[in-house]
Amino acid sequence: MTHNLNIFENMESEVRSYVRSFPTVFTKAKGYKMWDEAGKEYIDFFSGAGALNYGHNDTVMQKKLVEYITSDGITHSLDMASSAKAEFLTKFNETILNPRDMDYKIMFPGPTGTNTVESALKLARKVTGRTDVISFTNGFHGMTIGSLSVTGNSMKRKGAGIPLQNVVTMPYDNYVDDQDSLDYLERFLDDSGSGVAIPAAMILETVQGEGGINAASFEWLQKVESICKRWGILLIIDDVQAGVGRTGTFFSFEPAGIKPDIICMSKSLSGYGLPFAITLIKPEHDKFAPGEHNGTFRGNNHAFITATSALSYWENEQFEKDIKVKSDIMMNFLEEMVEKYPELKGEARGRGFMVGIASDVDGLSNKIAAKAFELGLIMETSGPKDEVFKLFPPLTIDEDGLKQGLAILEESIKATVKEPVTN
Amino acid sequence: MTHNLNIFENMESEVRSYVRSFPTVFTKAKGYKMWDEAGKEYIDFFSGAGALNYGHNDTVMQKKLVEYITSDGITHSLDMASSAKAEFLTKFNETILNPRDMDYKIMFPGPTGTNTVESALKLARKVTGRTDVISFTNGFHGMTIGSLSVTGNSMKRKGAGIPLQNVVTMPYDNYVDDQDSLDYLERFLDDSGSGVAIPAAMILETVQGEGGINAASFEWLQKVESICKRWGILLIIDDVQAGVGRTGTFFSFEPAGIKPDIICMSKSLSGYGLPFAITLIKPEHDKFAPGEHNGTFRGNNHAFITATSALSYWENEQFEKDIKVKSDIMMNFLEEMVEKYPELKGEARGRGFMVGIASDVDGLSNKIAAKAFELGLIMETSGPKDEVFKLFPPLTIDEDGLKQGLAILEESIKATVKEPVTN
Amino acid sequence: MTHNLNIFENMESEVRSYVRSFPTVFTKAKGYKMWDEAGKEYIDFFSGAGALNYGHNDTVMQKKLVEYITSDGITHSLDMASSAKAEFLTKFNETILNPRDMDYKIMFPGPTGTNTVESALKLARKVTGRTDVISFTNGFHGMTIGSLSVTGNSMKRKGAGIPLQNVVTMPYDNYVDDQDSLDYLERFLDDSGSGVAIPAAMILETVQGEGGINAASFEWLQKVESICKRWGILLIIDDVQAGVGRTGTFFSFEPAGIKPDIICMSKSLSGYGLPFAITLIKPEHDKFAPGEHNGTFRGNNHAFITATSALSYWENEQFEKDIKVKSDIMMNFLEEMVEKYPELKGEARGRGFMVGIASDVDGLSNKIAAKAFELGLIMETSGPKDEVFKLFPPLTIDEDGLKQGLAILEESIKATVKEPVTN
Amino acid sequence: MTHNLNIFENMESEVRSYVRSFPTVFTKAKGYKMWDEAGKEYIDFFSGAGALNYGHNDTVMQKKLVEYITSDGITHSLDMASSAKAEFLTKFNETILNPRDMDYKIMFPGPTGTNTVESALKLARKVTGRTDVISFTNGFHGMTIGSLSVTGNSMKRKGAGIPLQNVVTMPYDNYVDDQDSLDYLERFLDDSGSGVAIPAAMILETVQGEGGINAASFEWLQKVESICKRWGILLIIDDVQAGVGRTGTFFSFEPAGIKPDIICMSKSLSGYGLPFAITLIKPEHDKFAPGEHNGTFRGNNHAFITATSALSYWENEQFEKDIKVKSDIMMNFLEEMVEKYPELKGEARGRGFMVGIASDVDGLSNKIAAKAFELGLIMETSGPKDEVFKLFPPLTIDEDGLKQGLAILEESIKATVKEPVTN
């Protein structure tokens, strides 16, 4: 049976969005490829907005998941103990925390990014007894009221229908030309007449995905950590999108050498695209009472199975090395594009597999992404004016697939910059 | 491999809760039964707090899910169109909406109860341009800041770490003896000097699960609907726990004959315990802009597959009739218990498969539930003082299983009321 | 020089209000009489909305004030020490606090009612560490954001332009027919699932002036006090309008025998209509740091002079007795009116010199007040729909003046109820 | 009768503050001199924190006020029309608004600075339909919750006991070395992902008094005005302290050539130290409904009388010229002090009669002010760490008085810098 898009137009709320950018009905996917009902094949440089870092339907995980299901393994268990959960905890500790000398308690806050962010904000306020949180320009942390409060996008904020409170936005790295954004932040904290109280926490992404592929420098991150320490502020890293290898290491902040107080993870954590999230908490901050934060789907055993399997990728150092090689190919390609097509007025941005080109030409990035879709490449835009087209292939893509995708992208750029731009 | 509970104590945050009430490691489940790693069998009168209304690992859904996975069906697709989603939309319309003469748009707000509640609150505020929402005493709607604002429990509210705003709590049905709670509500709305503004919405559960199995009368629900209409207030029914058959009909409000403006559904919607939620919106209120509310896991294709399959149960009228028969068995049993064990100081409460006994003896309900667990019956308590022990078997339980569970429960009551109570 | 009303229309903001109800230019006043520029004489049953309880330009105070001014007495002194302030403090203690066995610290929070209310709310929150305050339906406490939050009137609340927070409104005495409003309040406080947190304070007027001359019973006030004690909630009595003798005793709550934690006073406190306010605080709650609440006009020495003089009235017991006699005349008159003019659909309300008739006929009270003005009697309306016409003569009015005013009022009633009512 | 300070210690709340800095009981004052009960004479370089710009008990105003009182002129009239009010309106228009080509409606918001600020904030929110207001670091606008929200001082903010909302603080002129503070502001407004919404208003003082005598440059003020225009933001100038000649012109912003949307005035407006405030509103923003903001003391007729008289000073151009001459004397003196006493680590700041020295030595400014008091000069400190000693003599001081005061100040500086500093 094939379906047409009318079903979605007729039955689904106007809030639907990606179906508008990618107007076809998908049916199958494997690795870095997707197929629609008409049988058309697409290369996926979108990866579920970072939820499919290991590609679609990874064969090993798929096998383990099917075995688990057919053996009547527990599916849903709230936060009761299950064998699948025990194995995830054990493997996460062995593969991720221990080798990085990280001592953290694990909280299951509900299965989505916004669940982990909300749990982190609540905990930081409880631990410190303070109400304000400092977020950063163009941060994106989720759509529930707590997370939306620390999200920068004005359209999304207005969607709240109420004033969003208890938050102060500070400038992210490189926000104003030639001004060190942390000088500004420190001045506010240092001055008791500034109107900005010492906050419970700062929350930030090390590379801002939705905000336009803005990568903070490692020095900036280190200085943020030291400011937090100086003032007794909890540092929350939202690694929902940048984590799980997207920037080249399991945690995005590893190369900066910092140790956040709280870490938010979701998206690719299950490895298979299943809803799953955790909040990592330094033991000294593990102060929630039993059940003080809860949720029906905080234990998704299917996700435990695939997540445990996915962690095996990180047992082999070669995995990170391969990411690095492919990252370099992408960044070189992007820099080449910027130079070769000056009509782009482009700037290459990002790190690892979280890269893109910001174009100063209004509307151009969206046109390029639309053209790419037409040519069989799935890719989205981001940034406050959708000025950036993002490259988010699966980490597991092979070089052939990568080059094939980049070739389609160049074709899309070329075709688009030649058109007269009309908005 | 068997695991012990130390793993959870050492690695999981103090916030963990059900693992404390049910201290064993579960490994397998089918229908209304669960097994732990030691092979002990349990009867499940908990059903994942209402997320497993069709029992564990339903054989038909299991088969369809495995087929889908092995065929490389799309797993994760944000809100792109997929065949699995098209089929869910179509079947939901045919099986649920059309036969009930309900015209609603469907929103995928993220996969959990709190996601759908947050989307409903945001939408109501946007549509009306008002900020306040009326919630009801002992309501429970979720743990993210928007949903927590409309949740009554003081321990959970304090967990927010910030004052919760833009909400007015009104008394639920039968809140104060001999006083009609809606007289009170109407007086506040009618009086321009009351300090209570006409709100964007009222949000309520028709039977309060976490709040202590309080069932509103149909007359009360009808009057709430008419008050909402009179004042142009949107009526949001949170059917996350009471919906999907838990009270005997697909929507809990069907027997009251009301048509809410917005309906929140999750928990048992996937049929299989997978994270999944929808928000149903009357077409005239479908006013979100594209992407104004979004989320990574708003399209969980595994859940589409099982949810579509689960809807088949509702094609046969016998399903509702069977629920009714078994409901009556449970309620009769509970009333018998209240009479037979006056030490309980008990009151039977609820409707359908959402029933329990409220005991006036401090701490007694928790003791009964603990005893039941020991004897192989899984059951939880609720209410502001955990004064209610809840019976939440799967709807699909057979009469044998039901009676077996009730027998264990009676044994637990008997054993407990004989002990001297010490707190 | 005489002025016309155009000056006000042209130059004053649209927010002006009493100039619309009393459209003439006043120039002189003495005792209970006022004169406009045309020489027309008015009897004053308005008393500056309770700010002129001793009438206009009291001769003794006038003399002392002029002596003070001509001797170059300090006029403005923030909260420096001045002789005039020392004398006020001494006399207030001797005349008011000591004889009533009241031990309170005196705070000068700025010279208006809203200043004292804001200081009380801030202090209660600081002392208890809680954020919420319980206010009551139809309470009126001022127009700055803190005070406006606890004010019931919806038109005034909307004037804030922001959602008003940290407040829960509870029903005042007799709010819903046949329901004891404190049953609701206690139920909410007692139930940890009610969504209503234990507040920092309750704030209320013993007789609501702007809210429609609603007088709480002494039993109700006593029960409120005992609820506050039980829960460790601070009781704030806003005696700005009902205090300084308006209800027959210096503090309005004296006959109920309660001892509020914080008392707000202003309006008639200066005795002469000068801006002046104090906040009385039980010593154990006197926890502001020096300067934590301040304000330029918190020491108005002219007001100290007249306020000290005004306190002499309270040295003679005959003063309260005279008020009682005249109060009875007024209440008898009002009850007679209600009976004699059934067209009023009236109800006599209030206590002491704070009385009026609530009419069930839409718009009638405003018409009566307008007619009275025409006939030389100044009087205003109150209540959420302006349904009450208020009698607020000076306490010092003689019986002749009182009867003259009542005669005009009856004439106004008679003339108005005979007109066909058109809104 | 003489009083001692015990009365204040025993009876007044701990919140009292200036009585601690100036520990004596004042009794008389004239022009720039004050006397205490012991007959000691003081030179007043404090001027009631800017409320006595024309000195104490100005002889002309004194005479008019006494005449008015003795003639039984209306004292209190809420916002009824009175002859005294008509004359104030007329004279204010003729003397102040017309000659400056300013078209504004006049609102009487209650008699204090915080009343006018609250009215301005409410109006701006109502007019624009937006909730946020931008304030600036170290701004000071009052102690009621609305005004406190836009005040920077952290000790005062904590006094609120609740989180202060709907406000974003931006850096005042010269806040961070070598960074143009308006670059930040514009970047935040321009970027739809910044998390900072376009506000209803910006509120600022042109010279920050309490904040530490920070004077914004005229260019900065002009740029703020143009940013407000560009974004449709209302510009509110809080001229409560800097207005009425304190900086050399009637409005402090005159030399910058800007026309604020709303102007807040109080303090010296009555001319005599009486509580009085107005809000000036561009006619197109005059959108309050009648009575939407009100208050008992919004018409203080004594203040109308003295304010009208005070305006005569501004009829003669010589008045401004004299201020200029004396300002220059003060600034030259301060710069000389900085140079002559390097131990001060001082910086001369301010404009007009609103000047001072910021000392980098912790606690030094407070010591100098204390020494000056001992030597007969009244003077206070300001700034987040009380690091500035302020010179605020009356504008009407003669050169002799000024030099006498400066001589005492130098003596105080000299004596203090020689002491070993111990905190």
Automatic annotation (TrEMBL), chains A, B, C, D:
GO process terms (BP): ectoine biosynthetic process
First-level EC class: transferase
PROSITE patterns: AA_TRANSFER_CLASS_3
InterPro entries: Aminotrans_3 (IPR005814), Aminotrans_3_PPA_site (IPR049704), Dat (IPR004637), Ectoine_EctB (IPR012773), PyrdxlP-dep_Trfase (IPR015424), PyrdxlP-dep_Trfase_major (IPR015421), PyrdxlP-dep_Trfase_small (IPR015422)
Keywords annotated in UniProt: Aminotransferase, Pyridoxal phosphate, Transferase
Entry superkingdom: Bacteria
Pfam families documented for this protein: Aminotran_3
GO molecular function, one term: diaminobutyrate-2-oxoglutarate transaminase activity
Pathway it works in: Amine and polyamine biosynthesis; ectoine biosynthesis; L-ectoine from L-aspartate 4-semialdehyde: step 1/3
Cofactor(s) this protein requires: pyridoxal 5'-phosphate
Protein EC: 2.6.1.76
Protein family (similarity comment): Belongs to the class-III pyridoxal-phosphate-dependent aminotransferase family.
Name the UniProt record assigns to this protein: Diaminobutyrate--2-oxoglutarate transaminase
Organism of derivation: Aquibacillus koreensis
Encoding gene, per UniProt annotation: ectB
